[in-house]
Amino acid sequence: MPLETATPVPAAAAGEHDDLAAVRAARRRHRATVWGLRVLVLIVVFGSWELLSTYYIDPFYYSKPSLIAQRLGEWFTDGTSKGSIWVNLSATLQEAIYGFALGSVLGVVLGILFGRARLLAEVLSPFIQALNAVPRIVLAALFIIWFGLGMESKIATALVLVFFPVFFNAFQGAREVDRTFVDNARILGASRFQVLTSIVVPSATSWILASLHTAFGFALIGAIVGEYAGADKGIGLLISTAQGTFDAAGIYAGMILSTALALLAEVILGALERRLLRWRPPSQSAGAIGI
Amino acid sequence: MTPLVQLRQATKRFPNGRGGLHTAIRDVDLDIGAGEFVAVVGPTGCGKSTTLSLISGLQPPSAGTVTVGGDQVQGIPGGVGYMFQSDAMLPWRSVLANVAAGPVWRGLGKDEARRRARDWIARVGLDGFENYYMHQLSGGMRKRVALAQTLVNEPSILLMDEPFSALDVQTRALMQQELLRLWAGSGAAVVFVTHDLEEAIVLADRVVVMTASPARVKATFDVRLTRPREVEDLRTTTGFIEIYREIWSSLSAEVDIARKGQTRAA
Ligand SMILES: Nc1ncnc2c1ncn2[C@@H]1O[C@H](COP(=O)(O)OP(=O)(O)OP(=O)(O)O)[C@@H](O)[C@H]1O
Ligand SMILES: [Mg+2]
C-alpha cells in the first residue's frame, strides 16, 4: 500500500534523556545568570543613589532609598495620612481595572466593527484621528466636574486612555485578516457572523493582546492622574499629599506602589497571552507588536 | 441535459492598479459533467485561479454566464469544495478543529462534526495528529488536512488549485495516488488546476489547455487511460507518453508566448 505511514512523534527515547537534561540545565544556568545580573543592576543604581544623597546631594529634594523604604514601611504598618494603605491601593486598582475593562471592551468591539465596515471607517476616521489628538489627560479635570470626586471620574479617565490604543490595534487586526481564510470559511459554509467570530476575532487577537499590555499601564496612569486632580483616596492622592508637604520620599513611595501594580498586571496579561496564543510557533510568540 | 458546471463566454476583468482594467480570462467556454475529473493546464498568470473563483461563486463574472447544476451562480453554490492555492488552514486551530469547521458551520452538532472529522483525518492518513497545530505539521501533512477539511463536506464539485505544487516529487506522487483513491466512488466532479502536465494526465479524464493571458480554452484532450491508475507506473507507459506529446505540443506554444510576454514586461 502506497500510504504514507504517519505516526505521532514518539516520546523521547532513552538516549535523548541525557540531552534533554543537559539542555534544561543550561537553560537554568542562563536564567540564574540573567536574574543575578538584574539584582546587580538594582544594587548598583540604588546603592549609588544612597551614597550620592548621603554625601553629595540634598536628600530633602532628591530623597534616598533608605528614606523611601522607611516611608513605605510606615504606610504599611501605621497607615498613611489618608487612611489605611490597603484602602488606597485597592481604590486605585479598582479604578484602573474598571477603566481597563470598559475601555478595552469598547475598543475591541468598535475596532473590529470599523475594521470590517469599510464605509463606516472611511466616514468616521478623520473624527477618530481628531479625538485621538486631544490631550486626553486634561479630560481628567473635566470628568471631576461631570462625575464628582468619587471613583467614576477616575474610571472615565482610565477608559479614555485605554480606548484608543486598543481600538487602533483591533481595527488594524480586523483589517489584516487573510483573505484566503475568509474565502475558505465561506466555501466551507460559514455565515457572515461565523466568519466574524471564527476568523476575524481570532486573527485580530494577537494584535489586541499586544495593545492590552500597554493599555493596563495607561489605565493606571488614568486612575492616578484622576486621583491627583481630586479624590478622597488612592495612590494619586497620596502622591499629591506628599507633594503638598514637600515629602519627596512619599512621592517615590507612591511611584513604587503603582509600578508594582503595573508589573503584577503585566504578569497576569502575559500568562493570558501565552494561553491564548499557544498555537503559535515558539519563536514568534515572544515578539508582540506595539501600538 | 445541462452539464454540472457550465461556463459560457465567461470573462473576468480586474482593475490593474494603473486605473485601467486587466482581462484575466476572456470568453471561456467550459463544460464539466457530474463525476468527471478535469485537469486545467496553462502558463502561469493566465487565469486558471480566476476560472475556479468564478465557479466557486467567490467572484462574479464580468460578462458571460456561469451555471452550476443548471442554476446561474449567485453567491456560493451548494456542494462546492475548494482547495486554495495558498494555505488556508487556521493556524490557531488544531487539525481536528480545522477539519470539523465545515460541518460545524453548516449546523451539524459538535459531536457529530467531530466524529466525521476524525473519520476523514484517518482517511487522509493523519491518525494521531488530531491535536497538532498547523506549524507542527510538514507541508505534505498540511495538504492532507486541507483535503480532509474539504472532503468532510462531501462536495459534488471539488475545485483544486495547484494543491500539490509545493510538494517534493515523492510526496506529490503519493498525494496524487491518494486523491485518486479518495475520489473513486465519491461521485464528485473535480476541476484540478496544475502547472504540471504529467500530473494532469495521470489524474484526469480530460485535460483542458488554456491560452496565455488572457486565458481562453485552447483545446481539450480526452485521456483514455484505464482506471484504477497507479501514478508511478503510468508515467512510463506508451499510452501516457503519446498523449503527453500530443498535449505538450499544444501547451508549449502558450508557455512560449507567456514567457516572451514576461521578458518584454521586465
Ligand atoms: N483580485 C485580483 N485583482 C486584480 N487582478 C487579479 C486578481 N486576481 C487575479 N488577477 C490577475 O489576473 C491574472 C490571472 O490571475 P490568476 O491568479 O487567475 O492566474 P493563474 O493562472 O492562477 O496563475 P498561477 O498559475 O501563477 O497561479 C493575473 O494577471 C493577475 O494579476
Ligand atoms: Mg493560480
From TrEMBL, chain A:
It is found in: Cell membrane. The keyword Secreted does not apply. Residues 89-273 form the ABC transmembrane type-1 domain. It is a multi-pass membrane protein. Keywords: Cell membrane, Membrane, Transmembrane, Transmembrane helix, Transport. Belongs to the binding-protein-dependent transport system permease family. This is ABC transporter permease.
UniProtKB/TrEMBL annotation, chain B:
It comes from the Bacteria. The keyword ATP-binding applies. Keywords: ATP-binding, Nucleotide-binding, Transport. Signal peptide: none annotated. PROSITE patterns: ABC_TRANSPORTER_1, ABC_TRANSPORTER_2. SUPFAM superfamilies: P-loop containing nucleoside triphosphate hydrolases. Pfam families: ABC_tran (PF00005). Residues 5-237 form the ABC transporter domain. One of its GO terms (molecular function) is ATP binding. This is ABC transporter ATP-binding protein.
